[in-house]
Amino acid sequence: MEKITLIISGMHCASCAGNIEGALKKTKGVISAHVNFAMEKAYIDFEPQTLQVKELLSAVEKAGYKASLPEEQSFDKEKALREKEVKSLKIRFIVAITLAGILMYVAMGHCVGLIVHQCIMENMALVQFILATLVLACGYQFFTRGFRTVVKSRSANMDTLVALGVGSAYLYSLFVSITLWLGNTTFSSNDLYYEVAAFLIAFILLGKYLEAITKRKTSEAIKRLWNLRPKTAIAIRDGAEAEIPVDDLVVGDIVIIKPGERIPVDGKVIEGYSSVDESVVTGESIPVEKNIGDTVISGAINKSGAFKFKATRVGKETTLAQIIRLVEEAQASKAPIQEFADKIAAVFVPAVLIIAVASFFIWILLGKSFIFALAIFITVLIIACPCTLGLATPTAVMVGTGKAAENGIIIKNAASLQIAHEVTTVIFDKTGTLTIGKPQVTDIVCRGGSRTAPTESEIVQLAASLEKMSEHPLADAIVGVAQAKGISLVDIQQFEVFPGKGVAGKSADSQLLLGNRSLMRDKNIDIAHVESDLQRLECEGKTVMLLAQDTKLIGLIAVRDTLKEFSKAALDKLKAMGKEVIMLTGDNRRTAEAIAGELGVDKVIAEVLPKDKVDQIKELQKQGVKIAFVGDGINDAPALSQADLGIAIGSGTDVAIEAGDIILIKDDLRDVVMALDLSRYAMRKIKQNLFFSFFYNSLGIPVAAGLLYPFTGFLLNPMVAGTAMAFSSVSVVTNSLLMRRYRRRI
């Protein structure tokens, strides 16, 4: 299976997107297809052995639209095309509204006492025909696209409604004009509807112009991310400095960065020292000091000193490129709440056509004139707006995920954005999530075994010799103490790991064990004589490792991990939001409860092996709670996958490999709060948009059909209907854009 993205042009409503999706899904070899109306792109999974890309392009074109392949680094080109569309709509609207204004003066001026030249009065029908035809020419695409869609895909869209509504007024007026030119006195110039047709086109063009502007703003987060990427870089080639395009950089290139410059690709500092502002990528406002061996991120700004670094990731592999890709994928995805709107949009246009035709004949049967019924028919077609259905969800998703990305939070898809809103319980891993993950040795307790009681140095030597072969976070702390004290390590044979319990190995003639109570219990090591020490240290929130030589316990090593700076503030805020907070850890219960007490955690699940974390989450899910699990994204991958929402603490440079539905680029738990809060805000906007869309169409169409006329005598003017339709989709997008004003609450 392969994935491909196509740029789609010619879409004007949700029905258009549905038509294209339908055409693609009917194509043999297409596995799935999703068309994003707001982004004007199609995302397709297909079988390359069955289907060629040109056949996908052809399928879109047969449906009445145009498709093209996105070029490499094509954001600038896409931006130029959008700017061209906005400019074209602006010019066409100005011309259309100017001509429509003149037409209104010609048609109605004499009725209100304005001076109209006698020559115009004598050729009223001809002058109105010419002006109206010029206005309709400004909106010719409504007619070509509307009828082409009907012919090619046997379906209708918003353009079809506009073409039928405006075309009916225009053709009726043309019929009246011909009768007048032939000398028939049955009609007069007062029976012409040219000004209605002209103003409808002008208002609809205005709506499309404003919609294009507001839609363009929804993708500004992506634009800002792309702008972080410099065009050129200074690299050392053939022993000399050379300014080259960033796209020409390869892994291993030595790049020179001067103060004030943006870092073009990811790399590792090999010479120099500086302070780097990574806020544009991670959201962290404080500059980060960079020394030799430290990593640098593409898009970051060098604040002070100059330095050289070796490129480690270029092109699509850089952190910035990965972030952009993840944000684009999120913006292209569909939230589950959109499915209902899609079902409505699929039958919307045909339903409106049926209502319009039925309204026309009902009023004829009720004895109203042809002109009256025609006005009803036109108004129903014009006021209907399937655009709002297509824009309600994706625009809010685009702005919400973009806002999150600006703050160093990557929401991978729209479904995650919706699920985050539903979370009731947040489970945190302890080590590396709530704590820094770099524990320090705090206590060394010696206890005599079968031999002479060992010294502290001997305890450290044996423990560090075992741990130097381990990848456990606590291992570094013990090995670090040995290095600091200058203690030489001994060789270990038959090294063995007991996941969640400890390690074992053989040194000289001795069998060594280092681990927790569970390991000692499994190996029948008596620890009763150190129970008081264990309880004392554990109640202080320390993790205690027991060291046994042969079959005797010879010492204890206690370590304490430091809480992250904002852990407690983040958990307090989550509880204030009504979320249950749980800590899940492999530590013993006393240690876990001591740390939980400092943090104010609601519930502690301790002494859980890594493989059993998933089972604990499943048990909680059976109780009907929606769970978000927060972990490091690698060791906790199974738990992140099992949870309803996985939130991975990212490293800032390993975005692509992080597990989870949401990635926190910087190591700040306050971003968990922001992610959930932003999700709530985005879902509120989506619901507001959908409510307005359904309310507008549910109220507007019956009123346009004349529902109020028998009771109040009120009849909606077609031009008012056109104005309402033009601004309905603009209001939905504008409501989504208000999310850009969101500010973190902690």
Number of discrete domains: 6
Strand order of the largest sheet: 14-26-25-24-15-22-23
DSSP strand content? 15-25%
Biggest beta sheet summary: 7 strands, mixed
* Poorly predicted regions: none
Number of strands: 26
Cα-atom radius of gyration: 34 Å
Amino- and carboxy-terminal Cα gap: 43 Å
Count of alpha/pi helices: 27
Estimated structural class: alpha+beta
Instruction: Kindly report the average pLDDT value.
Output: 84
Share in helix: 40-55%
- Rough shape? elongated
Give your account of this protein's structure.
The chain has 746 residues and is an alpha+beta fold. Helices cover 51% and strands 18% of the residues. It is built from 27 helices and 26 strands. It has a 7-stranded mixed sheet, sandwiched between helices. The chain has a 6-stranded antiparallel sheet with strand order 6-5-7-13-8-11, with no helix packed on it. A 6-stranded antiparallel sheet has the order 16-21-20-19-18-17. β2 and β3 form a beta hairpin. α7 (158-181) runs antiparallel to α13, α11 packs antiparallel against α14 and α25 runs antiparallel to α27.
